[in-house]
Amino acid sequence: MLIKALIIDDERPARAELKKLLHDFPAIEIVGEAQNSKEAVEKINELDPDLIFLDIQMPGKNGFEMLSELVQTPKVIFTTAYDEYALKAFEVNALDYLQKPIESKRLEEAMRKLEQSQSSNKETRIDKNLLTDKDQFFVKDGEKCWFVKLADVRLFESAGNYAKVYFENQKPLILKSLNALEERLDERFFFRVNRKHIVNLKWIEKIEPYFNGGLLLELRDGEKVEVSRRQSVKFKEMMSL
C-alpha cells in the first residue's frame, strides 16, 4: 500500500535532496510539495496526504503554527537545520525528527517507525471527511504543543469562536468553533449533547435521568455533562435506550 507524502520546505534544494533520498523507499509516493505554510495547508486539504515532511523554520508561520491550523493532522516527520527544536518536536509526539543535512541512515530509521505506526493503526474509513477516534490533530497553546489522538479527547467545550479540548489533565483552547468541529467529527464516536459540549461516547461511564426530560452523563474522569432535552431524544435512539 502506497503512503502519500507531502514535502513542506521553503528551500528548493532541500526539497530536491529529500525527494532523491526517498527514491529508495518505493512505498512512499510524493504527491506534492509546498514552500510555505499557506501553500502547505492548501495542499494538505487538497491532496489528503498520509505523511508530511515538515520544515519547522519557514518565512511567515512556522511549522508548529501551520499544524495548529489543521483540523486533522497527518503523520509528521520534522526536517530542520535547527537542533534546538528537537526536544519540542518529540514533546508534541511527532513520528520522528530529522536534522539537516538528512542522512540516509536516519531516514531509514524514520521509515521503520512509519511502518510500525502504519501496521498498528489500520482502519477502513467510511467517509474520509469525517474524523474518527483513530485520527489525531495538533494543538498549540502558547509555548506548549501536542499531537492529540481523538480517542484521548473526552470532551469539547464551546468558548465563543474557540473550543476547549479536554484530554489527560489538559484543557487548551483551539481556534475552531464547536459547530465547525461537529461537522467534521463522526457521530459514531462524538455526540453534540448540548449547545456547549461535544462528548466522546467511549468516555461515558454512567447515564442518568435529569431535569426536564434531559439526561446526565458521567465520564470516566468523573466529569458530569448534561444532555439537553432535545438531544436526549436523539441520544436515546442512537444508544438504543
Task: Report a brief summary of the structure.
By secondary structure, this protein is of the alpha/beta class. 28% of the residues lie in helices and 32% in strands. The strands form 4 sheets. Strands 2-1-3-4-5 form a 5-stranded parallel sheet, sandwiched between helices. Strands 10-9-8-12-11 form a 5-stranded antiparallel sheet, with no helix packed on it. Strands 13-14-15 form a 3-stranded antiparallel sheet.
The figure for the number of domains is: 2
Please write the string of helix (H) and strand (E) elements. Answer: EHEHEHEHEHEEEEEHEEEEEH
Rg computed from alpha carbons, rounded to a whole number of angstroms: 20 Å
Overall morphology: elongated
What is the CATH third-level topology name of the largest domain?
Rossmann fold
Q: How many DSSP E strands?
A: 15
Our estimate of the beta-strand percent is: 25-35%
CATH superfamily caption of the largest domain:
Response regulator
Arrangement of strands in the largest sheet: 2-1-3-4-5
Number of helices: 7
Name of the top-level CATH class of the largest domain:
Alpha Beta
How helical, in percent, are the residues? 25-40%
Largest sheet: 5 strands, parallel
Structural class: alpha/beta
State the distance separating the first and last CA atoms: 41 Å
CATH architecture of the largest domain: 3-Layer(aba) Sandwich
**Average pLDDT, all residues:** 89
Domain Response regulatory: 4-115
Modified residues (4-aspartylphosphate): 55
GO molecular function, one term: DNA binding
Keywords: DNA-binding, Phosphoprotein
